[in-house]
């Protein structure tokens, strides 16, 4: 039996397996559930025939490793993926519960369907189909699956440093991304990320708004002034130095971040959004791919219940995410945010700004690397179209981690989905099925890679 | 036995009763618990010997009525109080749980101890002591206790309109206030209140901060700009018309809102507050008593959990409370806030502003009313000091409600406490005991009132 037939015969089973995997609410912050997902993956690796399968403890969530190394003289490929997912709130905006996978209109809806349990499973299914039908894999494979990608992979660098020998390889294949078979593309770079929390304190407790309102400092009011100082009315960041170390967008790169007016309109329509915001001198795609951004991801202060409670809040908190580009240093960027916040803090309150662990710099692909050449040829043969290079606005810490830790180049080939990090995340059943064959082809094609 | 001895003999029992009353978590918004508090009060009225005791249903929480009308040719006095309390959050800032009354250092700590279950009980204890020791009350008493004061007494006006005959009286005595026996005072006026909620919507769902950050509208960011437009850096309200219809502070009134530097410092020190904010041209006491204020009472947007979630929030909400003075109309003031918010709304988002029910105008006492004259004489005889008039920054809807609904003047005599509406609310045991005697004296003294 060839692997095409094998895959066809197992579709019902694989969709059921994916649903089982998606039912584990492995939100990065909930270690017990992430561990369950790790064990689910490890068991699957065993079942397929991988060796040295182990769930490695780290300071955070565990890393799952397994290998199949019986292809002498062939390249060794690291398959990377993650089994943790973003938190699912706000829950009331989900059509069906995030951890009860539901199939509607040819899509699997669940937190983690597209990002990226579906994509992780594609790699394993391809290995299984190849091993069951040919008795071997075309290349040596080392699987490195982690449980902290959604919080910036804080433990992965140390895991790699601690296991450099075990992880020697020729390249990394990552499927934490989408694919557009109509417009195949190769990752040219992605933004970095850093996270901060702003804490405002105006008094040692909330006080009665009637007794003191008009004279007493208000943490919510102070925080609003601080946050309003971060962007101008158009949405451009006002922090001195925030746009330092950003590369000019040159003519050779510009086509890689170009969107048609129809594509821009589709983004607006899809989100019921009135208009884009941000730096007027750049297109929306340039703003969200090649320019840094400061995103207010959450605010909380004072009374949160029904109606209005007559208090003056003594505390206010904001969660901030930075997206960084080119050679911007996360540390330097966080420092500029902190300096600006402190300089724009009203005199009547105390402010602290915490930098969260897990910051990661932006990634730029080594454009002349053989892996990228292979990637281009593979996509051309798969789609009969010449792939374009593209920058993405998201962050793939793994690309930087493998570059820094093992000197390896990463190719990203994933089958994506929609509503990543948002309610009603989904992956199409069609992509889930196509992806299995494509991963078999990837492993067969890459056997000739010479790094 | 005289009532002094009677009270002394029953102190242990009364403190126990107060604790029992405080254990009912009768937060205005939780109707079942407010009903329990109403029934507790009604049972107590029965036990003391009140007649026509009834828990009246309203559209909101119930009103408890009871009377004792066997003092012919004597005035009829309405005793007003409320048995609902403010919500207790943030719970983690309480030293002991808010609904487990705890005695420390001569204070009873619990939500509602000072505001105002302790003060309500003082009225009942005084009536009980007088009835048990003299067989009668010095005046006719009608008790009107409600369960919605902390949400602006929305049902009380209709209750009064529906029971005008039953509620005929000469005056109202309200104890929802504090007392300073060293500096006795008479209420000259209090601020009104109105509440609004601002809802910002930037998209139909949260989106991935990496994919879109820098180009996609952000509800939290838009709300911050809106909220920051409400006050200048000093804390003065920037809404056009917000200070309309505000009386000048004339020289005859100024002494009634004067605080010593020591008193101002004590407020700052008590709250660990760095400095006052607001209109520089007025003193802090003037700002919070004779000037209107706009208070941001709560903000919520985006991710609320641990760490930072990489999303662009699609919704943001703020709770606003206005405090109004003089002849300011709540409707007009709310209108000016709405107009300003809409005019300062970034183009990329949709905003709605809801005005909550229960707004109430400010109260000015009729300064030549016989009740105020009695009030002054009573305080003079009680404290051997001449009382001063004072304005308070809080809102006593009942004063307006009884003025509008029954044409009655209200005198406020309460024994207060500290941390109203805040964590670690308390009432001193000394005030709780003194208050019982004082309420006996009040009822004896007021028998000669001629309205």
Compact description:
Chain A has helices at 3-9, 11-22, 31-48, 113-134, 156-162, 209-212, 219-228, 261-270, 284-287, 330-343, 370-383, 397-406, 429-445, and strands at residues 51-56, 63-68, 76-82, 102-104, 107-109, 140-146, 171-174, 185-190, 192-201, 207-208, 293-302, 311-312, 315-324, 350-355, 363-364, 388-392, 410-412, 426-428. Chain A has 451 residues and is α+β, with helices and mostly antiparallel strands. In chain A, strands 1-2-6-3-7-17 form a 6-stranded mixed beta sheet, with helices on both faces. Chain A has a 4-stranded antiparallel beta sheet with strand order 11-13-9-14, with helices on one face. A 3-stranded antiparallel beta sheet of chain A has the order 4-5-18.
Low-confidence stretches of chain A: none
- Oligomeric state of shown chains: homodimer
Number of helices of chain A: 13
The major pleated sheet of chain A works out as: 6 strands, mixed
Tell me, briefly, the overall form of chain A.
Answer: globular
What is the share of helical residues of chain A? 25-40%
Question: Gap between N and C termini of chain A, in Å?
Answer: 33 Å
Percentage of residues in DSSP E strands of chain A = 15-25%
Structural class of chain A: alpha+beta
Average pLDDT rating of chain A:
95
* Interface with most residues: A-B, 103 and 102 residues
Radius of gyration of chain A, taken over Cα atoms and rounded to an integer in Å: 23 Å
Spatial sequence of strands, sheet with the most strands of chain A: 1-2-6-3-7-17
Instruction: Please provide the count of β strands of chain A.
Output: 18
